[in-house]
């Protein structure tokens, strides 16, 4: 189904030299198949591995209309990457997703159709509902994920089955408003975005997605991440 | 809307005052005085019930967490396709 809207994809990258060409190729493929108008905004935070050079090469191949480069000097965090990217977005809708291929672009048409079906302000991908799921996770990882999600559901009641997920479609002006209202970092940032959205009365739709864990590079989940996550959840518990 | 912390504190203090009222015979009733021990244990029963419920929910969700094996196979196939197509378009992959 074609749509009269334009979709801007924000791709924050840091050392994604191997993943970036593939994710861009897949985005181009699925946006073209759906006959959607789109642009891909690559926000590289000064990757030492040459991600920006790869991005420039992709821009030569696909054109400056489709591939927009908005690099930054150094790593400055996800929230500011979204603010930075959205300032340059020319679409009326904005996709945010990870550049590491754990979020597959084949789902974009489902996000768009879901958004249109209920005029949702936000459509969020969920690994925890319907046909959603994960690949490459052992029992321990699944237990941590489900346990953490359960704690969030009980303590924060966010009204969204997968709040840590960062594959989402936003109406552009709503993304801008939300990013400015949120102060958390890391995993908790995505949770706060949804909670703030609920407080402001925005509607959230969900699309089940399959999450294939990083093909190239390593995922980060250690003791430090868990402590930071817990602090973030308690902060939201006390303030929202 | 008030923060979740305060919602919990309000609900907690209401339940706590009801429990204490029963425990110190603020409400006079034979049924209450005969079941003092049970009333005293209510918070522990509730905590155990909640823990069992939570463990069951999380356990069930871990057990039914979909393994998207086809998605991983499809992605690997598409990575090959993408690399071939990008090479044709003039993209040079530098191996690490």
Automatic annotation (TrEMBL), chain A:
Which keywords appear in this protein's UniProt record, sorted alphabetically? Endoplasmic reticulum, Glycosyltransferase, Magnesium, Manganese, Metal-binding, Transferase
Per the UniProt entry, the Enzyme Commission number(s) are: 2.4.1.83
Q: Which residues form the signal peptide?
A: none
Compartments in which it is found: Endoplasmic reticulum
Q: Which ranges carry the Glycosyltransferase 2-like domain? A: 8-178
Cofactor(s) this protein requires: Ca(2+); Mn(2+); Mg(2+)
EC class name: transferase
| Biological process, per Gene Ontology | dolichol-linked oligosaccharide biosynthetic process; GPI anchor biosynthetic process; protein O-linked glycosylation via mannose
Record's GO cellular component terms: endoplasmic reticulum membrane
Which superkingdom heads the taxonomic lineage of this protein's source?
Eukaryota
Task: Report which reactions are catalysed by this protein.
Answer: a di-trans,poly-cis-dolichyl phosphate + GDP-alpha-D-mannose = a di-trans,poly-cis-dolichyl beta-D-mannosyl phosphate + GDP
Q: Family, per the entry?
A: Belongs to the glycosyltransferase 2 family.
Role: Transfers mannose from GDP-mannose to dolichol monophosphate to form dolichol phosphate mannose (Dol-P-Man) which is the mannosyl donor in pathways leading to N-glycosylation, glycosyl phosphatidylinositol membrane anchoring, and O-mannosylation of proteins.
Record note on quaternary structure: Component of the dolichol-phosphate mannose (DPM) synthase complex.
Under what name is this protein listed?
Dolichol-phosphate mannosyltransferase subunit 1
From TrEMBL, chain B:
Could you tell me where this protein is found in the cell? Endoplasmic reticulum membrane
What are the alphabetically sorted keywords of the record? Endoplasmic reticulum, Membrane, Transmembrane, Transmembrane helix
Recorded metabolic or biological pathway in which this protein acts: Protein modification; protein glycosylation
Regarding the membrane, this protein is recorded as: Multi-pass membrane protein
Give the principal location in a single coarse category.
endoplasmic reticulum
Parts of the chain that traverse the membrane: 6-27, 39-60
Top-level taxonomic group: Eukaryota
Gene Ontology cellular-component terms listed: dolichol-phosphate-mannose synthase complex; endoplasmic reticulum membrane
> Entry's Pfam families?
DPM3
| Record-level GO BP terms | GPI anchor biosynthetic process
Q: How does it assemble?
A: Component of the dolichol-phosphate mannose (DPM) synthase complex.
Q: What does this protein do?
A: Stabilizer subunit of the dolichol-phosphate mannose (DPM) synthase complex; tethers catalytic subunit to the ER.
Family to which the UniProt record says this protein belongs: Belongs to the DPM3 family.
Q: What is this protein called?
A: Dolichol-phosphate mannosyltransferase subunit 3
Native organism is Lottia gigantea
Organism ancestry = Eukaryota, Metazoa, Spiralia, Lophotrochozoa, Mollusca
């Amino acid at each position: 189904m074609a749509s009269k809207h334009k979709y801007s994809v924000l791709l924050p990258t840091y050392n994604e030299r191997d993943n970036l060409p593939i994710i861009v190729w897949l985005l181009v493929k699925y946006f073209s198949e759906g006959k959607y108008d789109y642009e891909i905004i690559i926000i590289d935070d000064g990757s030492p591995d040459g991600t920006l050079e790869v991005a420039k090469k992709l821009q030569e191949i696909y054109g400056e209309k489709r591939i927009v480069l908005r690099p930054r000097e150094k790593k400055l965090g996800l929230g500011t990457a979204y603010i930075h990217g959205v300032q340059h977005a020319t679409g009326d809708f904005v996709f945010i997703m990870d550049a590491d291929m754990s979020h597959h672009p084949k789902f974009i048409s489902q996000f768009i159709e879901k958004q249109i079906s209920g005029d949702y302000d936000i459509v969020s991908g969920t690994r925890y509902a319907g046909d959603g799921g994960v690949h490459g996770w052992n029992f321990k990882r699944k237990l941590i994920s489900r346990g953490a999600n359960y704690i969030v559901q009980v303590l924060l009641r966010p009204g969204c089955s997968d709040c840590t997920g960062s594959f989402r479609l936003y109406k552009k002006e709503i993304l801008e408003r939300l990013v400015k209202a949120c102060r958390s970092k890391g995993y908790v940032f995505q949770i706060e975005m949804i909670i703030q959205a609920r407080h402001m009365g925005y509607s959230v739709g969900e699309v089940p997605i399959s999450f294939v864990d990083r093909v190239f590079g390593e995922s980060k989940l250690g003791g430090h991440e868990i402590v930071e996550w817990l602090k973030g959840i308690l902060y939201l518990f006390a303030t929202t | 809307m008030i923060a979740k912390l305060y919602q919990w504190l309000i609900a907690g203090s209401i339940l706590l005052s009801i429990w204490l009222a029963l425990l110190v015979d603020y409400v006079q009733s034979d049924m209450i005085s005969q079941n003092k021990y049970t009333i005293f244990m209510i918070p522990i029963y509730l905590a155990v019930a909640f823990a069992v419920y939570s463990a069951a929910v999380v356990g069930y969700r871990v057990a039914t967490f979909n393994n998207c094996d086809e998605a991983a196979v499809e992605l690997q196939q598409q990575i090959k396709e993408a690399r071939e197509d990008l090479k044709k378009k003039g993209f040079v992959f530098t191996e690490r």
